[in-house]
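Box 4.2: Ligand-aware structure prediction
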Amino acid sequence: MMDHPLLLSTLYDRAVGVFGHREIVSLEADKTIHRTTFAETDTRVRRLVSALESLGIAQGEVVGTFGWNTHRHHELYWATANTGRICHTLNIRLFPEQLEYVVNHAQDRAIFVDVDLLPLIEPVAPLLPGVEHWIVMGGTGVETTLPNAVNYEDLLADQPLSGRWPEVDERSPMMFCYTSGTTGHPKGVAYTQRSTYMHTITNTGTLGMSQSDNLLPIVPMFHAAAWGLPFIAVTVGAKITYPGHDLSPAGIVRIFNDEKVTFSAGVPTVFLGVQQYLMDHPDERLETIETLVCGGSAVPRGLMKWYAENTGIYIAQAWGMTETNPVASVALIRDDMQDWELERKLDVMETVGIPMPGLRMKIVDDAGTELPHDGVAFGELFIQGPWIAAEYYRDERQDSFVDGWMATGDVCTIDPDGYIKITDRAKDVIKSGGEWISSLDLENTLMAHPAVAEATVVGVKHAKWQERPVAFVVLRAGHDASGEELVAFLEPHVASWWLPDRVVFIDAIPKTGTGKFDKKVLRAEHENILL
Ligand code: ADP
């Protein structure tokens, strides 16, 4: 067989040739809708490649992006991927010192920034000596303190179309993604041509996106390549709708319906918001959505039940990490499960599913001994495969990589059918009197209570048991519930010693840069609450 390299440009060229007419829609910062096609986008991608050349950014060099999900971000993804340059997607929610660290660490030479995000990056710019070029996306005649900033459209305007894509090594990096860095500096992962190609092909088949779909990725392009969805959509020739900066539940429902979106993906907090919006606006509904992929943190069972009962949509729970390029498993309802009643299906949907084809997973105990896949034994999840990181980029912290496996830091069970159930992140595990309590099980059950909008459970110091669970709960507007009532609601579902010692009502649960519950903030603030 031909030893043909696995390159993104191969997928891209076919898509432009076959699906040139396919639309790409994008919400602009000024709220207008921008419409283009795969073919027109190709012209702009080729101008952008010439522009990068004119800026002196060579193959193997790094281009930073600081933007929402837009058609311009899409162009940057492909201009870099097709030419062996590296796209470093900067998370717009990083703290300034993290931003400074990741830009300097990745050695970004240019940064492309959305006009409405200028205030976030301008104060950091003086700390980024390696960045020679600033390009502002959107707006015209914009005032900025960024040195020598040019407008994206001006940069592209007079550029010639680049020709054939250059030779690229399939093992060379095409994207840098950094973890949000819960402790210490963020860690970088280099997605290669090969890893992203493999991820794209495998996810294409498994998630079932096709040319009749219209994808709207809510998951940001600055976080783990929007779960690789822009690559998948181009590969299968799906229409793509980019929501820009408007991620409000009302905005999401509007653009879903206006653009006839069929396929979307995001973290649970997004779909919790949409659920609340639909509950508050009973005359509105999701008119065209068929597939919702949800992951990034545990998807509450109550949320999935609500969508199934009220919208007919069975949310597909996915699991992954920045280190897994990023999707590694999805909770597929197998053929033989299709006739099951809802509650039984929810037992499956509540897992993070089965590994993507091509990946191997195992669970091990503290001593490193492999545990049985019996749905009972739980241990740390280890993973290996062609799109699993083998190292952190230019970093001394390499403890996660052991004998060809990556330790995920997630604790789970695997049942005899291969379905993986995450019980906790290792660092969130609650150990009470030496026994583990699953905070995710408690949270999931709490969020099934009709008065509960959001809930999270953390372990805090306890004089007798070392640690005990405390629940932090946000009530739905107009609803009421006492702590005793919520604990009584949990009682039939969990062991009695799992029941939280206290329920604390708060206005909002702190969130991380990627929209996940930020447990470490709550733990730090309330660690002595039971002493
Ligand atoms: P960050 O640490 O920046 O949030 P990641 O997106 O890489 O970065 O987070 C990966 C982690 O998110 C996983 O290790 C896991 O703990 C959690 N996670 C992802 N998907 C799920 C899911 N479906 N259920 C539970 N946890 C999840």
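In the box above, the bound molecule is adenosine-5'-diphosphate. The longest strand covers residues 452-462.
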